Amino acid sequence: MVKAAKQMLQPEFQAVLQAMLKHMPHNKDYLVENVVKPFILSDDDYKKIMDVMLDSFNQGLGKETNAKAAVKMFPTYVRSVPDGTETGKVLALDLGGTNFRILLISLDGQEVNMESKIFLIPQAIMTGTGEQLFDHIAECIHKFMKDHDLLFHKIPLGFTFSFPCRQEGLNKAILTHWTKGFKCAGVEGHDIVQLLHEAIERRGDIDVNCLAVINDTVGALMSCAHEDRKCAVGLILGTGTNACYIETLENTELWDGDTDEPHQVMINTEWGALGNDGSLDFIMTDYDKQVDKHSINAGQQIYEKMISGMYMGEIARLVIEKLRKAKLLFNGKGSEELSERGRFYTKYVSEIESDGDDSSFKCTKQVFAELNLTKYTDEDCRIVQYVCSLVSTRAAYLASAGIATLLNKMNRPEVTIGVDGSLYRFHPHFHDLMEEKIRQLVKPGIKFKLMLSHDGSGKGAAIVTAVANRLALEKEQKLNAKNGIPNGE
Ligand code: ADP
Ligand code: MG
């Protein structure tokens, strides 16, 4: 029709019509835009999310409101950042969701040496019994110690256990519930240090004592604070998402530890659970609802499921499938792989976006090949790239709203945020997107810096454990002196 109309017009009018058509929305683009629209949130939406967050944080901190709060704001027993004088040799465990690592760390002031090994946790163990899980962990510790000639040494151990725990002491942590694909029977409601010690005793061939349990957010904070004393927030963007920050004892109504200096404590927010009470329903898309429905913890970790590595690829896949079925992608023809739940990995999002303005779409085409997609146009590449960028941008902005809420709440003039996790580390734009959005959302005058934490889970556990070990030795020496026992015996 347009063609016929054009033919009827004089050449000068044809030129005008051409220019007009150029500025009209392309029909396909318009339809795609309609599908992805729910991922584009306004400034007002992000401000509203921050209000919801602050409200949830305060409910978690309040004595009367904590029991019902979605975000638990667990006080850790870590009270101060390192002073850089920490020393000693420590064994650290890092159980975070995707990998299990054991590390041997030597601290000597600013000098830190690490050796580490990754062990696999088989799927059957992730969803088996707690006894199987801790027996497996103890076996890995034995292997690691044997390989490092440590079998006949007594060595302090720090455990970075990155699941929601109610701590009753530095080495007493009760798992409230599993997240991130773990579901081992008989662990929820129990002290994970006790379960670990029991497994070690069952073997009877290693001598390790777990002195500290920390969350990976605390690990990220501590490891960055080791270099930068302004670090007061720890952020994880990996399999899951979570953050911790330094709160005053006055605001921590559930604090039951001692109240000597410093009058502060690190709070493990467990912010992934934001929205479990329905408070984020106003931004949830159909795709978020599907991801939640098919997860092993439906109705839980709502905020986490919109952001982190375990879910982001799947959100993108669902949108891509929706567009394909509407014949807006791949001419309607997909592949078995593309239709398989969980098969579009979050690393694909990073790879596709790393093509940037490169019109050859090198990485995107490689991902398509891995998904057995053979027939596609450059426009398909462009649309998939656009979908990925919208899903990851929303994730980065949502995490930014959380960080801005914490920065505004702490109200310190300058704060460094220690960040760990593969999503943040490897996504090509996450850092820049977050910097831009936090700047926009934070109170004027507050300065901040996002700092990548190197091996935070290991280094952080080592720092906390080394301090706990020193304090324990000092206490023992004092006690011995009081009882007239010479030290070292
Ligand atoms: P954990 O959080 O379990 O300690 P990681 O920090 O390594 O482990 O995060 C693992 C998560 O990171 C996985 O969900 C994975 O999908 C995601 N991931 C791995 N590589 C990339 C990448 N290149 N880009 C974005 N996400 C990634
Ligand atoms: Mg980790």
UniProtKB/TrEMBL annotation:
<dbReference type="GO" id="GO:0005739">
    <property type="term" value="C:mitochondrion"/>
</dbReference>
<comment type="similarity">
    <text>Belongs to the hexokinase family.</text>
</comment>
<dbReference type="Pfam" id="PF03727">
    <property type="entry name" value="Hexokinase_2"/>
</dbReference>
<comment type="pathway">
    <text>Carbohydrate metabolism; hexose metabolism.</text>
</comment>
<dbReference type="GO" id="GO:0001678">
    <property type="term" value="P:intracellular glucose homeostasis"/>
</dbReference>
<dbReference type="InterPro" id="IPR022673">
    <property type="entry name" value="Hexokinase_C"/>
</dbReference>
<dbReference type="GO" id="GO:0005524">
    <property type="term" value="F:ATP binding"/>
</dbReference>
<comment type="pathway">
    <text>Carbohydrate degradation; glycolysis; D-glyceraldehyde 3-phosphate and glycerone phosphate from D-glucose: step 1/4.</text>
</comment>
<dbReference type="GO" id="GO:0005829">
    <property type="term" value="C:cytosol"/>
</dbReference>
<keyword id="KW-0324">Glycolysis</keyword>
<dbReference type="GO" id="GO:0006096">
    <property type="term" value="P:glycolytic process"/>
</dbReference>
<dbReference type="GO" id="GO:0005536">
    <property type="term" value="F:D-glucose binding"/>
</dbReference>
<keyword id="KW-0808">Transferase</keyword>
<keyword id="KW-0547">Nucleotide-binding</keyword>
<dbReference type="GO" id="GO:0008865">
    <property type="term" value="F:fructokinase activity"/>
</dbReference>
<dbReference type="InterPro" id="IPR043129">
    <property type="entry name" value="ATPase_NBD"/>
</dbReference>
<dbReference type="InterPro" id="IPR019807">
    <property type="entry name" value="Hexokinase_BS"/>
</dbReference>
<keyword id="KW-0418">Kinase</keyword>
<keyword id="KW-0067">ATP-binding</keyword>
<dbReference type="InterPro" id="IPR001312">
    <property type="entry name" value="Hexokinase"/>
</dbReference>
<comment type="function">
    <text>Catalyzes the phosphorylation of various hexoses to hexose 6-phosphate.</text>
</comment>
<dbReference type="GO" id="GO:0006006">
    <property type="term" value="P:glucose metabolic process"/>
</dbReference>
<feature type="domain" description="Hexokinase C-terminal">
    <location>
        <begin position="233"/>
        <end position="467"/>
    </location>
</feature>
<dbReference type="GO" id="GO:0004340">
    <property type="term" value="F:glucokinase activity"/>
</dbReference>
<dbReference type="InterPro" id="IPR022672">
    <property type="entry name" value="Hexokinase_N"/>
</dbReference>
<protein>
    <recommendedName>
        <fullName>Phosphotransferase</fullName>
        <ecNumber>2.7.1.-</ecNumber>
    </recommendedName>
</protein>
<feature type="domain" description="Hexokinase N-terminal">
    <location>
        <begin position="32"/>
        <end position="225"/>
    </location>
</feature>
<dbReference type="Pfam" id="PF00349">
    <property type="entry name" value="Hexokinase_1"/>
</dbReference>
